[in-house]
Design brief:
By secondary structure, this protein is α/β, with parallel strands linked by helices. The protein has one domain: TIM Barrel (Alpha-Beta Barrel), CATH 3.20.20.220. Helix content is 40%, strand content 19%. The protein has 11 helices and 10 strands. The strands form 2 sheets. An 8-stranded parallel β-barrel has the order 1-2-5-6-7-8-9-10, surrounded by 5 helices. A hairpin with a 2-residue loop joins β3 (55-62) and β4. The chain is globular. The two termini are 22 Å apart.
Length: 318
């Protein structure tokens, strides 16, 4: 079922969902299941599965020589989506990137989604490749997420890259895109960033999932400004519980977000990561209860491969 249909059928009730990261190459899927299992009791209608763009590795060739190769350290997004659907009977949302994929590779991936019965995709530009300062698309790939959305929309209606195909097996995908309550790092202004978001919606995006935030007012303001410029699709808040002392540095550095000073002060009082984890649960429960009062369509959690704290938070909310 499409994400938007899940939201409609909920009739105003806030849903629970979460995002997982594929294991690194050489690892099995058992640990992934162990982190999904405790969250199934909260009846997630869908689970997102991230994908990683390619990166460079250097292989020793002897005599001090190194050969540079391109690899993906966390492949298997579609396989994991199929496994989850089979094991849990839950819809999955594979992430589809501009970065590292040509238009043809994207088309093949979407066709595989159709064969697997996957009706939802999350269309993202992706980050710059590790070691590169600026984002560069793959040869023959998309520069912007809005262009990726347009390709997904076209394929769903039978318009492939090199021909139009008339078929009864058309699949109009439900397309999610990212939104940034604190502005994308590359956007020169919040107004510009919102216009780029609107462009993605006009290209065919059906819903928005936000970057994580720790101050709900950022989300409330973001939704209000999006509505003011004509963005009417559901805007799902993305939630990440703070869990370790080094999150004070890592989260702002990687995701370009601010943490409220009141949260920072409380984290600095903690002597151990276990204490930070408890604080993160308490903060996120309060955050989620406030979002529930705002009638958000879904509370979407970034699990980052761990589920014990999210299970405890969900136990207070759902």
């Amino acid at each position: 079922m499409k994400i938007t249909d899940h939201i409609i059928q909920a009739e105003g009730k806030t849903l629970f969902s979460f995002e997982i990261v594929p294991p690194r190459k050489g690892s099995g899927i058992a640990d992934l299941y162990n982190n999904i299992d405790p969250l199934i009791e909260f009846k997630p209608p869908f689970i997102d599965v991230t994908t990683s763009r390619e990166e460079y590795v250097f292989i020793e060739k002897g005599d001090g020589l190194l050969e540079r190769k391109i690899t993906r350290m966390r492949p298997g997004t579609l396989g994991i989506c199929a496994a989850i659907q089979h094991k849990y009977n839950v819809d999955t949302v594979p992430h589809v990137l501009c970065g590292g994929f040509s238009k043809e590779e994207t088309e093949y991936l979407l066709v595989d989604c159709m064969y697997l019965g996957i009706q939802n995709v999350m269309a993202l530009r992706g980050d710059a490749r590790k070691g590169e300062k600026y984002f560069e698309p793959a040869s023959g790939g998309h520069q912007y997420a809005s262009d990726l959305v347009a390709q997904i929309q076209d394929l769903g209606s039978g318009k492939y890259l090199h021909e139009a195909i008339i078929s009864e097996e058309l699949n109009s995908f439900c397309i999610g895109v990212a939104g940034y309550p604190e502005k994308h790092i590359e956007a020169p202004s919040m107004e510009y960033d919102l216009q780029m978001l609107k462009k993605k919606v006009e290209a065919g995006a059906d819903y928005i999932v936000t970057q994580m935030f720790f101050d709900n007012q950022r989300y409330f303001d973001f939704v209000e400004r999006a509505r003011a410029i004509g963005i009417e699709v559901p805007i799902i808040p993305g939630i990440k519980p703070i869990a370790t002392l080094n999150h004070l540095q890592i989260l702002p550095q990687i995701f370009k977000i601010d943490l409220p000073q009141s949260l920072v002060k409380e984290v600095l009082k903690c002597k151990t990561n276990a204490a930070v984890r408890e604080l993160g649960i308490e903060w996120t429960v309060h955050q989620c209860k406030e979002l529930l009062e705002y009638n958000v369509p879904v509370l979407h959690f970034y699990s980052m491969g761990q589920s014990d704290n999210i299970r405890r938070i969900a136990g207070h909310i759902f």
